Amino acid sequence: MTSTAHSTSSLPQQQPYSDQSIPVGAPPPYTAVDPTPEETTIGTSDDIDPELAGNQAGSAVDSETQSSPAMPATQSNLHQRYLFNIFSFEEAVVFAIYPITVCLGSLVSVISQPDTYFSSKRNFFNVIFVKNGWFWTTIVFLIHCVRLRISRPQGLLMRYAITTLWWYLFTQWFFGAPLMDRIFLGTGGTCQVGDRPSHSGWTSVGCRHAAGEWTGGHDISGHSFLLTHASLFLWYEILPVLTERGPLARQINTKIVMALLLLWWWMLLMTGIYFHSFLEKVTGWIMGLISWAMLYVVVPRVPLLKRLFSVPGV
Ligand SMILES: CCCCC/C=C\C/C=C\C/C=C\C/C=C\CCCC(=O)SCCNC(=O)CCNC(=O)[C@H](O)C(C)(C)COP(=O)(O)OP(=O)(O)OC[C@H]1O[C@@H](n2cnc3c(N)ncnc32)[C@H](O)[C@@H]1OP(=O)(O)O
Question: Which of 61, 135, 174, 287 has a CA that sits 20 to 30 A from residue 9's CA?
Fold first, then answer.
């Protein structure tokens, strides 16, 4: 990783958005750790129409354009990546929000646990939003997608499908009880109905319906999982739009996505303060990273998969 500092004074032609200091056609400001052009796509190349994004060199750089030797200084050269070439600066900030929030909430819970509206499980935002968290995430994702001029929607659909699949397997169904319940039962958890503990055949939902108590095992925080999982998905889908600062970023669609991200962050903080043990929240967060790691870290580094999923922003 090297510096991207440039002088702007004598540069004839500049890219309209993003890094104003980089001239079109100039040699790359630094050599990416992974220099393969097609592995450093910036922007939702297959998703966003360049004009709509207000940027020819920005969010909608085609992989073909990037591969072209005639245009060496593409957007892919403009984003310095950190930590083993995984994060851009924006991605690192976004990524850090969630572990910091879990730790902050847990720290507050140690100092004091004030009784507030959000300490109740029955609060409106929990019941209506988080408990239907994947539904709201889907709706907001659709709102984000409908304004993009999508030339090849299969990548977008596959990213959504994989993310939904991981949510489904972890929280809803995994050939029977979902993974989070299997982990709970596998670590010695039981559903205690009255004074009769039962070790098998339970799901957390079934236990609740039987008015039982879900006790004993490692009860991974589903909220911590869902809120991290959904937020990272939405962030990574919307970051290319935000970082270009084009017209798309100012649209109401973007604001709706940001509003849900804010709510998800707040509810994670509340989970951090009021619910679960620290370890249960940390494991929830870790589980929430799995499909993010697959889609936005592993897939972009495998050319075939990258083309299949057309991952944005990486
Ligand atoms: C033009 C091109 C377009 C391209 C489009 C691309 C793709 C779209 C394609 C197709 C889409 C088509 C149409 C779209 C329309 C609709 C589709 C939607 C599909 C769906 O998507 S349909 C599913 C909806 N379904 C959900 O979305 C359920 C989400 N839900 C869960 O997955 C779980 O629910 C989870 C993970 C939340 C765990 O749940 P959990 O609650 O059981 O467990 P956890 O360990 O977290 O909590 C223990 C106790 O602590 C309390 N607690 C903790 N933190 C708290 C806090 N902060 N505040 C208050 N209480 C808190 C809890 O309330 C609980 O309390 P208690 O046990 O008493 O309930």
Answer: 61
Task: Kindly state the tokens that stand for 69.
Answer: 């030797």
pLDDT at 209 over 70: yes
**d(Cα 179, Cα 286) in Å, to the nearest integer?**
14
Instruction: Evaluate if residue 83 carries a pLDDT over 60.
Output: yes
3-state SS, one letter per residue, for the chain: CCCCCCCCCCCCCECCCCCCCCECCCCCCCCCCCCCHHHCCCCCCCCCCCCCCCCCCCCCCCHHHHHCCCCCCCHHHCCCEECCCCEEHHHHHHHHHHHHHHHHHHHHHHHCCCCCHHHCCCCHHHHHHHHHHHHHHHHHHHHHHHCCCCCCCHHHHHHHHHHHHHHHHHHCCCCCCCHHHHHHHHCCCEEEECCEEECCCCCHHHHHHCCCEEECCCCCCHHHHHHHHHHHHHHHHHHHHHHHCCHHHHCHHHHHHHHHHHHHHHHHHHHHHHCCCHHHHHHHHHHCCHHHHHHHHHHHHCHHHHHHHCCCCC
* Residue from 123, 131, 174, 264 to probe ligand 1 pocket by mutation (most atoms less than 8 Å from CB): 131
Residue 298 — very low, low, confident or very high, per pLDDT cuts 50/70/90? very high
Residue 270 pLDDT > 90? yes
pLDDT grade, residue 199 (50/70/90)?
low
The reply to whether ligand 1 has any atom less than 6 angstroms from the CB of 165 is no
| 50 Cβ neighbours under 8 A, 6+ residues apart | 56, 58, 59, 60
Measured between alpha carbons, how far is 263 from 121 in angstroms, rounded to an integer?
Answer: 16
The ipTM of this complex is 0.90
Q: Is 134 touching ligand 1 by the criterion CB < 6 Å?
A: yes
Q: Which residue owns the Cα nearest ligand 1 atom 42?
A: 222
Let me know how long the chain is.
Answer: 314
